[in-house]
Amino acid sequence: MQRHITNRGTRANVHDGIGFVPQGNRVFDEMTVLENLEIGGLHLPKKRFKEELKKMWELFPELEKRKKQNSGKLSGGEKQMLALGRALIMSPRLVLMDEPSLGLSPKLVTFMMGHIRKINHEFGVTVLIVEQKVREVLEICHHIYSIKLGKIAYSGTPEILKTDKQKLKELFL
Predict the structure, then answer these.
(1) Sheet containing 94-98: which strands, arranged edge to edge?
(2) Which of 20, 25, 66, 136 has the highest count of CB atoms within 10 angstroms of its CB?
(3) What is the pTM of this model?
(4) Is residue 118 pLDDT above 80, yes or no?
């Protein structure tokens, strides 16, 4: 079923199972890691929140070690994990991610892409990524859209773009 989400409030989107990971490792710097995750699970019953929190600690054990630390003191990669964890703790059906690799080292980009794939495959969460590191995304996605001047310039599987370097260059470089 198609549903427009334009101009809807956050509450309606959360209710419908839509999570969001903003660009630039955005977390609440003055709050602890745990408090950031609590904000993501604010609408969950306590028992359910604890279950989801356990999943987040398993997915990102680095964050559990820092759960009482102010988020502003985390590295860029840890902040990105926290932003993703905050979106995931609500058990969304869809997560929208804006530039999840922004500011990350190549090693951390690989780490995050692996976790995004895991979230999709193991948690069954649909992930929509807006990303400039196209080659990395081609390795984890099922479908690609290229948008130029507000219109879809390409829609297809990543396999086509992996083999057609000229098409890839035309669309994304």
Answers:
(1) 18-21, 94-98, 126-130
(2) 25
(3) 0.87
(4) yes
